[in-house]
Amino acid sequence: GWAEASAAAVAGVSARGGLAYGQRNNADCADVAREANQGSALESAVSEAARRIDERLMEILFKRFRFADHCVAIKRYLLLGQGDFIQSLLDLAGPDLNARAHLISAYKMTGALEGAVRSSNAQFDELAQTHLR
């Protein structure tokens, strides 16, 4: 988790000589060179932290929340890749959709959506069933 990643990042910075943030000595050539090295240590620590955060974020999106599966479902059902679902949904909800927005019942729309899933190939899709529960 985050605790292990932050400990590893701190260990990496420490191995490079630390950040020495806020320390100032005489401005001779050695001090200027040391400050430049400390800046590169900070830069590498930030880069390492960004890499670990990106890696963890992608893992969460694609494994825990199944982002790729959701994209396929959007393509299949909302972008007309699965024509029988959208046709069934419009057949069931179409007459109600002609009414003013404030008069449309959320319960009727939910019922139309569930009916469209049951009457199309979406009934065999695990992701669609998960969202209707």
Structural notes for this entry:
It contains six helices and no strands. With 133 residues, it is mostly helical. The model is unreliable at 21-28 (pLDDT under 50). The relative contact order is 0.08. It has helices at residues 2-15, 29-64, 67-78, 83-97, 106-118, 126-132.
What is the CA–CA distance across the termini? Answer: 30 Å
| Secondary structure: number of strands | 0
The helix content, as a percent range, equals: over 70%
Q: In percent terms, what proportion of residues is strand?
A: under 5%
Helix and strand sequence? HHHHHH
pLDDT average, as an integer? 75
| Cα Rg | 28 Å
Query: What coarse outline follows from CA principal-axis ratios?
Result: elongated
Label the structural class: mainly alpha
**Major beta-sheet overview:** none
Please identify the oligomeric state.
single chain
Write the topology of this structure:
Blueprint: H1 2-15, H2 29-64, H3 67-78, H4 83-97, H5 106-118, H6 126-132
Can you summarize this structure?
The chain has 133 residues and is an all-alpha fold. The protein has helices at 2-15, 29-64, 67-78, 83-97, 106-118, 126-132.
What labels describe this entry?
133 residues, mainly alpha, 6 helices
